[in-house]
């Protein structure tokens, strides 16, 4: 059976006829309408080779093809040849088409560090990665009417910043234009093409969004002398707006290159206060971030900051001294808090600098306090997404999330850690347990920071003496009445032994 309709396919069918011998019968069936010219060629071929002429019209073929094909296959008298599949392609045409799509360079620049969160991470909690009130940068630029309401505020903040510092808009634009490679360098920070914005639109966005952030940070810093700005400021008059802005400004998809902020800061302000200090003070207004955003001095000369989210990450991980980059093995991870405590491991709050400075010594596991509130989950999720996407940062936050997940297996573990002052919880115990169980899902930890610590904890946990001692403490020393009962029992046992020994001595040494 030859299926086809083009001239090449008919010629191919003609060449096949000489190879066909009885008892095979060749059926030529039209799939689609062909010209009368090709119809006459096919009929001539059939007559010339004295082959049974079972030619169907289009209507007949559609009606009878199923029955015809079934009968042919049952009688084993049909060789099925799909001419359309065997027809040769135009190699040169396909080559030219594919060459036009080839790239000589990578679609990602070597300096890209601002990413869209991969769908495999986003699906766990999409709202943790999306801005609510303000868009910064190109990824969510003009994407919603909600963000359009912030346009006027951004323009007002830009104008206020320029007027207060006696800088003209023309001078600001000229200063940006004088920075060699400003536009290309800024575009290369983003992990996808920004071709939908031309040069003027892109630089305008950088200036407006960057100056908005600078003015926002200065208005929230008491050391910057700004007067009569909060009276009619829609962002300052709403008490909840600071939390909304903190949420949006620490999202991975909502970032500006740090060098853009530094450039604008140098062109518009006197730089009496370091930019890193201004930024961290703003996020320090949230109690959940206070513990690791209140030491500004160590970040003043940090030239490796990539964006605001990266600065917050540095504030968390820089004080951490104990770093061991090893492969993460599930067998090395510790048991849950309740099990470890039953084996004699004591949990205490650590007052060491930095959230990640966890230490284990002499059966005591010291962990800095973590405040868990509404902002905790989106912060950690975006930090982990940044570590997973960017090759230049070690998986330190991901390591912390993995360790905490193993320590918190249930709400009982949360309650124990809260009682020890290690967790300050503003959510439900079950919510905290669920939070850590999904934080690092679908991620890969390539350099686990707590490998040595976990090995020490596991070795202590396996010691039988430690388990016996822990059981003794739990059963007899957990409250004052149990202690009194234990002491009384010991005294009674000692007196009984003394009396027995005295009796034996009297028996063997009777009085003379």
UniProtKB/TrEMBL annotation:
The protein's name: DUF247 domain protein
Membrane-spanning segments: 483-504
InterPro entries membership: DUF247_pln
Alphabetized UniProt keyword annotations: Membrane, Transmembrane, Transmembrane helix
Taxonomic placement: Eukaryota, Viridiplantae, Streptophyta, Embryophyta, Tracheophyta
